[in-house]
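ok so for the tutorial part 2 we go from a plain amino acid sequence to predicted structure tokens. step 1 is just haveing the sequence, like this:
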Amino acid sequence: FMTSKVRILHHLLSVKYATINNFYSRTATSLKGSRLQTSRMFSKWLNKNLIRPIPYNELSRNPQIEQFYYLTPAGAKEIGRQSEYSYKEPKAITNSKHESSKIDIALSFLIGYPDYIIDFDYNASLDGYRPDILVRMQTPDLKKKYTFIVEIERKKHPARTYQEKVLRIEKIFKKLNFKK
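step 2 — the prediction. this is what the tokens look like for a chain of 180 residues:
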């Protein structure tokens, strides 16, 4: 059994970085209450050097909510996953809404499939195409593997998205022999 504190640290290591909002309480009765416990945990972890903030290259309208954090080596040791920890200086976050959406989707895989082995690649390139996330999943018995291409689009018209992204992804599927 994992406490919510330990589960959040595990998930933070798995998804690489996240905001307090990404770990809201689904049982809280108010928006403020949904972030309260996580805010307290993040404050304690900052003081213990278990997590670090990622610097912004622009001013944020609401830095407390939009601040991204990543696990430190001490944080990985705290949850017994130091062998999985590989430090890479995180890039500064420039589009917090888009990045937060990516993390929400990654977390939905971890929460929805807690027994699966899941890997997230935010820098994948498939024949020159760079999806927002390439998700690789394996069943607990290691018999089946799944690959998901995640693309988030908030601003473009659906027809333009279809022309620019969906058709391109379908060509890549055929070329790389992916099954839909």
